[in-house]
Write a structure and sequence with these properties.
Helix content: 40-55%
CATH class of the largest domain: Alpha Beta
Number of helices: 8
Order of helices and strands: EHEHEHEHEHEEEEHEHHEE
Number of strands: 12
Strand order of the largest sheet: 2-1-3-4-5
Distance between the termini: 11 Å
Shape: elongated
Length: 211
């Protein structure tokens, strides 16, 4: 699941955005001022920052500049009522990836976020697991997890067909020495290592259950 830090002091807007994003399976943490956002950003890893500018203590521009100066390259969008060219220029010079002016269309915001976080659908998410197909890595809570290559390929096949039955013969094609017993061992190891719900559909195959 992708994690977003939302810096916004408008309680109604922040809760609306949180509900909207969580409905799309994003995990959202809210900070009402720049100092809180800074503390949270040091304690946790995020996939995207959504930042208002005019917030208490540390404004959005200075918050992002401080993160960029510290080497944090997490994608960041400004969502602000500041519409002048000077503010636009300052937003991008502080390290923003996008600058969205209030009022904005929620659907457009989601399109921009999806485009930024799901480039070519390279990252598949399941609960707290991310499978990056570009470098063939798996992380849980942003921490790398190592599993045998065959188990990884089987999991990817189930992942791409989440909620659907994958015929065991399709899985056999991945395996070096395909047998029913060997397949059960692989599935058992995947479930134990990744803590995922995989069902054995008798006489048919296996299914990674949807969250």
């Amino acid at each position: 699941m992708y994690k977003i830090l939302l810096l916004e002091d408008d309680e109604i807007l922040s809760q609306t955005l949180k509900e909207l994003l969580e409905a799309k399976k994003y995990e959202v943490s809210i900070a009402k001022n720049g100092n809180i956002a800074l503390d949270i950003s040091y304690e946790q890893d995020f996939d995207l920052y959504l930042l208002d500018v005019n917030v208490p203590f540390l404004n959005g521009f200075d918050f992002l500049k401080e993160l960029r100066d510290s080497g944090d390259r997490t994608p960041a969008f400004f969502i602000t009522a500041l519409r002048d060219l000077k503010s636009l220029s300052l937003g991008f010079s502080s390290g923003a990836d996008d600058y969205i002016k209030k009022p904005f269309d929620f659907d457009e915001l989601l399109i921009r976020i999806d485009a930024k976080l799901n480039v070519s659908d390279s990252k598949l998410t399941y609960k707290n697991i991310i499978y990056n197909t570009l470098d063939d890595t798996i992380t849980i809570d942003n921490k790398p997890v190592e599993i045998p290559l065959i188990d990884k390929k089987i999991f990817l096949l189930l992942f791409k067909n989440m909620g659907k039955i994958v015929d065991k013969n399709s899985i056999f094609e991945i395996m070096d020495k395909p047998t029913d017993l060997a397949l059960r061992v692989h599935i058992s190891k995947i479930k134990k290592k990744l803590m995922v719900n995989i069902s054995n559909i008798r006489a048919q195959g296996y299914r990674l259950e949807e969250v």
